[in-house]
């Protein structure tokens, strides 16, 4: 486990990475694909997102946030509930967010296979990583918040590690110290909802729900992000289009 994107252990380069930004980028990306989007593309910047839309043309929508709210000129924010509200067939969603999309761009520099994980797809994401890794290294990469380690991502990483270990908790894996730490975190709260609500990012989203009712209620986003194992959709890096990472 890597508690922040830049901490990917050098000895595990070339393996499989599971990138987590549970609140909310990887949950939202998972939900777009689950609801039929042709692809989700992670752009490295707002400018790159606009450039991708210009080159991809009709059917391309921009989604992302700054400070939790929709970016000016973007079609959508970063709400997984908005992503769940309709079907996206015929559309490619180009996303840029404060931390999550950058975390994937960093992970790509080190890993051969890159998957997006969240609580909703944690069991499926762990299973897919194991299938891809074929006994090789798996790194769970936490996006964190503005360069700080975040409880919400670390808790989710612990859940993913638990899934990788399987029901008996037995493993052929060598767990690094970070993996043992996040695993211990999963026993600290009665469940994902309590853990996400205890995190600083969860607290911020819960508070913002009241600020601007024009946006989806962000408190409901937290509840949605905390649902464990309800999705079999695992976004997987399929290539690049200009500067964008293409997940399907
Ligand atoms: C991020 O990338 O920092 C997050 O997804 C922020 C959020 O929208 O909650």
From TrEMBL:
It is an enzyme of class 3 (hydrolase). The gene is comB. Its EC number is 3.1.3.71. The lineage of its organism: Bacteria, Thermotogati, Deinococcota, Deinococci, Deinococcales. The keyword ATP-binding does not apply. Gene3D superfamilies: ComB-like (3.90.1560.10). It catalyses: (2R)-O-phospho-3-sulfolactate + H2O = (2R)-3-sulfolactate + phosphate. Transmembrane segments: none annotated. SUPFAM superfamilies: ComB-like. This is Probable 2-phosphosulfolactate phosphatase. Its cofactor is Mg(2+). Keywords: Hydrolase, Magnesium. Belongs to the ComB family.
């Amino acid at each position: 486990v890597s508690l922040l994107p830049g901490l990917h252990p050098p000895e595990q380069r070339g393996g499989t990475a599971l990138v987590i930004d549970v609140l909310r980028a990887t949950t939202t990306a998972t939900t777009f694909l689950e609801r039929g989007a042709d692809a989700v593309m992670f752009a490295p910047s707002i400018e790159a997102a606009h450039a991708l839309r210009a080159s991809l043309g009709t059917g391309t929508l921009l989604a992302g946030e700054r400070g939790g709210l929709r970016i000016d000129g973007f079609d959508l924010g970063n709400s997984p509930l908005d992503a769940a509200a309709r079907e996206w067939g015929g559309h490619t969603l180009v996303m840029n967010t404060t931390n999550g999309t950058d975390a994937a761009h960093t992970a790509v520099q080190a890993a051969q296979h890159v998957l997006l994980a969240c609580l909703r797809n944690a069991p499926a994401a762990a299973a897919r990583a194991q299938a891809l890794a074929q006994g090789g290294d798996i790194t769970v990469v936490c996006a964190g918040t503005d360069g700080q380690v975040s409880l919400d991502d670390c808790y989710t990483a612990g859940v993913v590690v638990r899934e990788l270990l399987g029901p008996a908790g037995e493993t052929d894996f060598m767990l690094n110290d970070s993996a043992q730490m996040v695993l211990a975190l999963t026993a600290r709260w009665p469940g994902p909802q309590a853990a996400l609500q205890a995190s600083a990012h969860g607290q911020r989203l819960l508070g913002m729900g009241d600020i601007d009712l024009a946006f989806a209620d962000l408190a409901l986003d937290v509840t949605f992000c905390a649902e464990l194992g309800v999705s079999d959709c695992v976004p997987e890096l399929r290539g690049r289009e200009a500067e964008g990472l293409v997940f399907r």
